[in-house]
Amino acid sequence: MTSPLVYAGPCDACNGDLHARPDASRVACQWCRDEDGQRLVYEVQARRKWMLGALEDKTLTAPAIARALTSLIRPIKPALLHTWVARKKLHPAGLDDLGRMLFRVGDVIELMAAGDARAGERVSVVA
Ligand SMILES: [Zn+2]
Q: Which residues have CB atoms below 5 A from the ion given as ligand 1?
């Protein structure tokens, strides 16, 4: 069984989706070549950091945030966000048209990092 690829953002040149192996430090665009015929290569960690930065100030529903952060940081379930709301650690940033709670992505990233620190894990969420 091969491990699933993680999304590593769009290629700067063609805007195509880049997918890297979870342990890979670099990812190559499957479509682009430079002048020498080499594939365009990106640093996965830098891409991830960039994507997290771009997401930080967005407000999204719990399932959307869980989906995004699961692929960028580590698995997280939407229910955890509601647990944090119940414990008053997380405050909704508003409601969408359907009345679902919206959260600021950066708040969730911080709570994930705080959880990591408490668990004594040496996982740094934003490297
Ligand atoms: Zn490309």
A: 11, 13-14, 16, 29, 31-32
Contacts (Cβ under 8 Å, ≥6 apart) of 28: 39, 40, 41, 42
Whether the pTM exceeds 0.90: the reply is no
Give the Å distance between the CA of 27 and the centre of ligand 1.
11
Ligand 1 centroid from CA 41, angstroms: 9
How close is the Cα of 20 to the center of ligand 1, in Å?
13
In this prediction, residue 93 carries a pLDDT of: 97
- pLDDT score, position 98: 96
- Say yes or no to pLDDT of 14 above 70: yes
Compute the distance from residue 40 Cα to the ligand 1 centre, in Å: 7
Domains and CATH numbers, the chain: 6-44 (no CATH), 56-118 (1.10.1660)
Nearest to 19, CA basis, from 32, 33, 30, 5: 5
pLDDT band for position 118 (cuts 50, 70, 90): confident
